[in-house]
Specification:
Length: 188
């Protein structure tokens, strides 16, 4: 059997990569990783979270933006992730206007990942450590399989996790007035 060499991309090559499709790729250790199309349930959860967090931002009278799956985060020299959703600060909202490719070099206020059955390690392990190193202050892992929402808060360079299930009200440091239970998310 002949093993073909995998092309290793620099971060700069990744930023300009275009395969002529609408496919989205993450860069993991220099290799392009195709992001699979979301399931219908995944898409419904994303829509709900987008709407709720957008309303919370309006209530708080902040100039932040909720960006669903369209903004990447550079997490290392040859790594870039595209979370299901990020919250941009007012400064990042201005900076992104000038970017030819929407990949942040600075940490967003929040990253949200909705777990797909075939990539649990990505969200629970790899992205967790990458987002901590990038110093993203708050990271949510929404897991439809286990019907659990994990809120990870960055403390001294490491994430402390609190898990919410059923009728437990989710506690977010970024959105202290949030009124949302795990069940509300999974009954969308």
């Amino acid at each position: 059997m002949v093993q073909l060499a995998t092309k290793i991309y620099s971060f700069e090559e990744y930023l300009t990569y275009d395969d002529g499709t609408d496919n989205k790729y993450e860069l993991v250790n220099g290799e392009l990783k195709l992001m699979p199309t979301a399931s219908g349930f995944h898409a419904l959860i994303l829509h709900l979270i987008f709407k709720i967090l957008d309303q919370e931002i309006d209530k708080m009278k902040q100039q932040w933006k909720v960006m669903p799956g369209t903004v990447g985060i550079r997490t290392a020299k040859n790594k870039s992730r595209i979370p299901d959703l990020v919250i941009l600060s007012e400064t990042q909202c201005q900076e992104i206007r000038e970017m030819s490719t929407a990949v942040l070099e600075s940490p967003p206020l929040l990253a949200v990942e909705i777990v797909s059955p075939n990539n649990t390690d990505d969200d629970y392990r790899y992205k967790r450590s990458e987002y901590a190193v990038r110093e993203i202050p708050e990271y949510w892992i929404i897991d439809p399989e286990t019907q659990k929402v994990s809120i990870l808060l960055l403390v001294s360079g490491f994430y402390e996790v609190t898990e919410f299930t059923e009728e437990q009200e989710i506690k977010s440091s970024l959105f202290p007035e949030l009124k949302l239970t795990a069940n509300q998310i999974f009954q969308v």
